[in-house]
Amino acid sequence: MLDAGNRQALTQQLRPPAGFRLVHAVGTTFTLDMTSALSVPLSFVAGSGEQFTNPVAVLTALRKVSDRVDIFCQAGNIRVPQGASDLLALLEPMVHQVSVRGGGLFHPKVWVLEFENDDGERRYRFLCGSRNLTPDTSWDLLVRLDGAPTDTVQPGNTPLQEFLTALCPLASVPPEQSRVNRIHSLADRIATVEWELPEHISLLAFRPLGVQTDPEPESLVSYLRNPQTAAGLNPDPAAAKTIGYKKLVISPFLDDILLGRILDTTRTDKTHVFSRADQLDLIAPNTISNKRFCFRSFDDTITPEMGDDGASTSGDDLTGLHAKAYFCDYGFQTHVLLGSSNATNAGFNKNVEFLVEMRGLKSKIGVDTILTSLEDVPFNDYSGTGGQQRSDDDEMRFHLDSKLREAAARIFLLDAVPEQGPDTSGLYAVTLEHDWTPPARLSATVRLVTLRTPVFEVGGPSEPGASSLRYRNVPLADVTPYLVLSLTDPESELTATAVVQGVLRTDPDGRLDEIVARQLDNPDKLRQFLLLFLSPEDAPPGAGFAGLPWRFGAGYQAGASAGLFETLVTALENPNASEIFSELEPVIQRLVKLNGESDDVLQLHALWSAATEALQMKETPHGL
User: Fold this and answer.
1) What's CA 555's distance to the chain center, in Å?
2) Chain centroid to CA 613: how far?
3) Is the peptide bond between 575 and the residue preceding it cis, with omega within 30 degrees of 0?
4) Which residues contact 192 (CB under 8 A, 6 or more apart)?
5) Distance (Å, rounded) from C-alpha 260 to C-alpha 257?
6) What is d(CA 45, CA 60) in angstroms, rounded to the nearest whole number?
7) How far is CA 288 from CA 257, 292, 371, 385, in A?
8) Residue 30: alpha-carbon gap to chain centroid
9) Closest Cα partner for 264 from 234, 296, 235, 309?
10) What percent of the chain has pLDDT over 90?
């Protein structure tokens, strides 16, 4: 059930089955690292899956699939990238920051994936885990389900279907209607999928929390939400409610309320709790001393995740514990919850979360079996007594993070207009408008994510067109709706910073084309881009289409035209050839304009011109 030595990357789990290509992917995360998000499209393109450090491969994958990928994350939890890559702009259509009403957090970590092959067959995949879309190397758990469509709606899929349709209304910047429609269509198709159950699992149910669906009263998750209204696992209504006689909890964050519910009121064996020492220190002494509990702490207590109350734990991305799991032995069966909810009241009653509830034989997935599988994970007996309080700095970090999320959910409007004056061709003035006032005793600054300077102080709502929030002489490729917002407490000198998604009301024509062209600043990069872009997603670069003779391995050989002629010829057979070639035309023309005297560029341009002419002839009706 749990293999502590199995450390597969998320990108491996996202890859399409052999012979299939991506139709649509919807992912959710609490924290989003923008650089990590850039690598996601690589998972869907054959031959590019390991080229995370190749900007041309990343660029190509983004251009190919970004219109089919949607990622939802908590507003105020988009990390500031170390370097302001041009490619971040290509994330704009696919990343959606969301905010949960009532003070809860958007905390689910799921992926819903749809694939298709050349015969029109579709396959589906569902991933539910505890990992954020960040580069940290923490210990996590993941449930993977693969499935195929049927002719009828499967009732068990209703919670997943409703979860998908609930995402877009949570976005602080509404997604384009075409994306909303695509997500709703995916939700409708998901309703018919029959899933393959994991090994040793006899029953499985989707458990989204914080959206429309309320789980059944007899479910494990219902008991952890409210034992008074839940039925428990005991089928006898006259007997005391219970969720099992031996239990195991794995959670980096916890509180006394949830631990009390897990213990329940019946006579039970030990309840094993695996967590982090710094979080166990915050539990009440009478809970820690309760002999019915057995507490163990993870060796490395530093983790970049935040607790369910939103409090930061550390600014360092070191290995730690992210896994969340609940195992309850009852009779010959074991009931399991895996997903995003920490063992806190907020994790089950306040946040938007997603868990998978499963049931299987105790002999296969019971608590004792799982305890054995955890022997290779660095847990130690917890020797503390609990009862500690958060430090003043921790309380301030919580306050800063909370206020930053509130600010990120506001609307920040940007306008980009051409600069007027000599030597300003291609430069823009970007004006920022907002209605946000920083909290009392905190200072705030804002800048564009693409530029280190200028950094403006924010004192209150901006006046329309105010020059104090105007960025001058911004190159076209640096125009962006992404802002870096910082909140600082002058007394403690603590600062919280995040990327905020604004609205670019006046988006200059050709902005994304300019970003692509700026990346492809020499013939070799352009040739590589064309080879990658024109190759089918489910075939390595230069492999051609099935049934056609062009299958060369010259895609990355030296020379401007190596492998490109064959790739252009096969691309002409693509049903979407006209759209593909029109998208690439501005890139070709810009390179010719900048490097038109280069022999390599002239050779590339000659090949391109011949291909476009052939496409025109193919699309022109012959005869009268």
Assistant:
1) 32
2) 41
3) no
4) 149, 150, 151, 152, 153, 154, 157
5) 5
6) 9
7) 13, 10, 20, 6
8) 8
9) 234
10) 55
CA nearest 169: which of 137, 126, 128, 212?
Answer: 212
455, 445 Cβ separation under 8 angstroms: yes
pLDDT-based confidence at 449, cuts 50/70/90? very high
Which residue shows structure tokens 């403006």?
A: 456
Q: Over the chain, what is the mean pLDDT?
A: 85
| The pLDDT of residue 108 is above 70 | yes
Return the pLDDT at 51.
Answer: 59
Please count the residues of the chain.
624
DSSP for residue 17 = P
pLDDT at 26 over 70: yes
Two tokens, residue 525: 């990069």
| Sequence-ordered list of residues with C-beta below 8 angstroms from that of 556, at least 6 positions apart, any chain | 528, 531, 541, 562, 563
Q: How far apart are CA 61 and CA 514, in angstroms?
A: 17
DSSP output for 112-171: EEEEE-TT--EEEEEEEES--BS----B--EEEEEEEE-SS--GGGHHHHHHHHHHGGGB
Contacts of 91 (CB under 8 A, 6+ apart): 34, 37, 38, 62, 66
Tokens read off for 114: 């749809």
* Predicted TM-score of the model (pTM): 0.88
The pair of three-digit structure tokens given for residue 462, joined into one six-digit string: 């901006």
Of the two residues 288 and 543, the one the predictor is more confident about is 288
Q: In a 3-state reduction of DSSP, which class is residue 345? A: helix
**In whole angstroms, what is the distance from residue 436 CA to residue 442 CA?**
13
pLDDT at residue 563 is higher than 70: no
Q: Dig out the tokens for 268 from the structure.
A: 């039970």
| β-bridge pairing 353-361 and 203-209 | antiparallel
pLDDT at site 183: 98
Alpha-helical (H) ranges within 284-339 are 285-288
Cα dihedral 548, 554, 556, 559 sign = negative
- Where are any strands of DSSP class E within 449-599? 456-457, 470-475, 482-489, 494-501, 503-506
Q: Per residue in 496-509, is it b (16+ CB within 10 Å) or e — as a string?
A: bebbbbbebeeebe
Choose among 508, 521, 509: nearest CA to 587: 521
Sheet containing 142-149: order of strands = 95-98, 69-74, 21-29, 110-116, 122-129, 142-149, 193-195
User: Where does the pLDDT of residue 58 fall: very low under 50, low under 70, confident under 90, or very high at 90 and above?
Assistant: confident
- 3-class SS at 202? coil
**What's the pLDDT at 304?**
43
Contact 90, 422 (CB under 8 A): no
Angle among Cα 354, 411, 35 to the nearest 5 degrees reads: 55
pLDDT of 377 higher than 90: no
Q: How far is CA 323 from CA 128, 132, 139, in A?
A: 11, 11, 6
